[in-house]
Amino acid sequence: MACVMDKEEVRIDISSLAQDGHEIETGTSPQQMSPLDLLSGDRDLYLAVCIPLYGAAMKGDWKTAKGIFDLFPTAVRLTITPGGDTTLHIATAAKHVHFVEEMVKMMEPEDLELQNKYLNTAFWFAAAAGIVGIAKAMLRKNEILPMIRDYDKMTPLHVAALLGHSEMVWYLYNKTDHEQLNVCDWVKLLNACISTDLYDVAWDISCHHPTLAVERDGNGETALHLLARKPSAFSGGDQIHIWNTFINSISCKRVEHKKNLRPNKSLKLVKHLWQQVIVQPHSEILDLIRSPSPLLLVAAELGNTVFLTELIALYPDLIWEVDNHNRSIFHIAVLHRQENIFNLIYEIGSMKDLIVPYKDENDNNILHLAGRLAPPRQRNIVVGAALQMQRELLWFREVEKMVLPSFRERKNRDGETPWDLFTKEHKDLMKEGEKWMRETAAQSMLVATLIATVVFAAALTVPGGSNQDTGIPVLLRKKSFIIFAVSDAIALFTSLTSILVFLSIVLTSRYADDDFLELLPSRLMFGLITLFISIISMMVTFTATFFLLFSHGVTWAPILVAVFAFLLVTLYFSMQCRLWAHIIRATYCSRLIFRPRKHILY
Predict the structure, then answer these.
(1) 1-107 CATH, one of 2.70.98, 1.10.10, 3.30.460, 1.25.40
(2) If we measure between CA atoms, which residue out of 164, 329, 162, 300 comes closest to residue 229?
(3) CA distances from residue 164 to 136, 169, 407, 483 in whole angstroms, order as listed
(4) 530-562 residue pLDDT tens
(5) Where are the domains of the chain?
(6) Quick one: three-class SS letters along 249-296?
(7) How far apart, in Å, do the first and last CA atoms of the chain sit?
């Protein structure tokens, strides 16, 4: 590390700081001295000043730093690292507000303009750190800091936007001289705000600079290209998001409802940008949406429904757009299992009959695409290989209804019909689904067997015993005994029922393709429901038993048992509820994902 001064020749007496106590002289102009030269030549200066200042700045130890500055006032301008960072750079990066405020008081305005070897000022570090208090302290001393650019010609505002510091971005947005920013700067800033979800800032920029809608950044992308890849920006109205919220709530996961205007702002931003684009000539519109990537088809692949519908609603001709493989947005939706995009096909009337027959260069029609294995991200929407197989079958059958009968047997260039392709692609998944279904049923059957054993034993040895002459239970007339008898019977019958259901899954199921569609999920769901009822009934049986045994003794014992029984049931449900939610969806709600009642396009 090095100490470099931006002054003329200077004599420094640091005998009280140096470890060996001798005097150090610097007789060379620092402008002619590289940090490494000074590091190797003035080791005592480095050890006595640079290291203590660096440590104090990192820890926010203003007392130690001030002691050094009092002995050596010009040290406030020293660079203390090989990268040319001053103490102010380090303290700012470490986010020590008080340290920076005190140090700024000791500095001249031009001292705040010192840059390291990457041309970063301490103010640039403040923007990167996102600490508005530090930025305010510096700006009170020097107002031109927001316009000092780094090595890549980026302003502190752009850096704050790239790192997603919303409060800092708004502060610098109002402190930066907009007149000194060119079109390239605004494009970079707009795209940076979109990338880091700062849609309120992006909205304000687009309103003041509407022509940015057609401007491209260094990668050739417009703001719309970035928004096409961000379905999360519009998740507030997304059906998948709503379903996932439902799943998470069933799964006992906390769903935080944040007061966030992001979906609203991002939607306004898309509308505003697209309105500026569609006034361009048709050829320029096509060039924008196709290059450098086909933003419509990217949005379809990622399930960016809201974005896509906004563009199509204002410019219906986009419905005919295809990629380099002659695939429309509906073909892409089928290939990537994006049901919300696919459902738009039911809103375009007879036009679907012209789009559905499209084939790619390998003669794969839309049903062939449904026969391909879904990407892992889409398969993992549901848990368990069996339910994933069920979802894949559901997609294939839904697309099969839409195509002409001749398409169902039409072969691609590899000589495969859609069903041939489906069977080949899903061969491993079907084996995994069978294994998962058998294991789940076997594990659940073990629990049901244990419950049946326990409650059967409880029925034979009633609490309180029986009258030896009549065989009638001694505690028969107590209400707790009636509860015990009824709950024990329910637990016994439901556990035996679940055992039979799970046995049918393990032993007698064919595990044919279509069995995964309804039969197996329905059986598994029924078995799990009866198992859960048996668990609850068994807990009630135990509680009633303790109430009977302690009816004339300690009353807190049965209450304690009841509490633990409730906790046990709750624990079991919390571990199984996510699986149950997915099975319910697969069994009873899966068909509702297609042909929704509410139209979202027109």
Answers:
(1) 1.25.40
(2) 300
(3) 19, 8, 49, 61
(4) 998 998 888 888 777 777 766 555 566 666 766
(5) 1-107, 432-593
(6) HHCCCCCCCCCCCHHHHHHHHHHHHHHHHCCCCHHHHHHHHHCCCCHH
(7) 65
